[in-house]
Amino acid sequence: MKLNLFDYSKNRKWYINLIFCLISFIGLLIIPSILFIFLKMFIKDENVSDIIANLLFILLLYLMYYKDLNKEFKTFKDNFKSNVKVAFKYYVLGMMGMVFFNLIIVTLLNDISSNETQVRDMLFNNTIYTLLTIAIIAPLSEEIIFRKSLQPLIKNKWIYALTCGLLFGSAHILTNIINNAFVFSDLLYILPYASLGVSFALMDYDTKSTFTSISIHALHNSFTGILLLITYFGGM
Q1: d(Cα 206, Cα 73) in Å, to the nearest integer?
Q2: Spans of all domains in the chain
Q3: Would you put residue 130 in left (φ > 0), alpha (ψ -120 to 50) or beta?
Q4: Which of 53, 130, 145, 213 has the most CB atoms lying inside 10 A of its own CB?
């Protein structure tokens, strides 16, 4: 039997899906950075170089899963109304969990996560680039990596959702742990991010389309970014 590396995930050998998953996760850490260094030799604007580097990485992710993603886009489009209802239900639950854990952490530590602080600083000082990053780059790359690449490997709905959530939450504090001295309390911030990650995974599982969470993730980040800009420039 001929082995087609780029066939539907369900038709590939499990170890091929595992390799693609590892490429996705490891690639997130190194591929955009390598492309960025290369592009800087030709493009003076670092923001432009970074966006192009990330878009090229997303293209690589798409090529690995293009059959699945093309089918899932059609599924999302054909069942749009029902998918929105499912997405809204899980998003509300995810937000409730995120708010709950954030309130506890802020009460205990009287602070917000370093990742959140970094994003806000970037948003206020480099608005257009940051909006493009959080509204387009992050939803596309993160949903393919943290949801799509794990779907073929974990069949149980709840194990899949919890794994996606914990990895998603961990990734959002990883940069701070790498760049700064490790503080044990930083691990608490996994919980609010994981809540949203679990909700994204569940909506994908039930709608059978990664584009459900891509859309909600993009709307969430866009709305949050615009709201922060309004409050910041409004002097609040």
Answers
A1: 14
A2: 69-233
A3: alpha
A4: 213
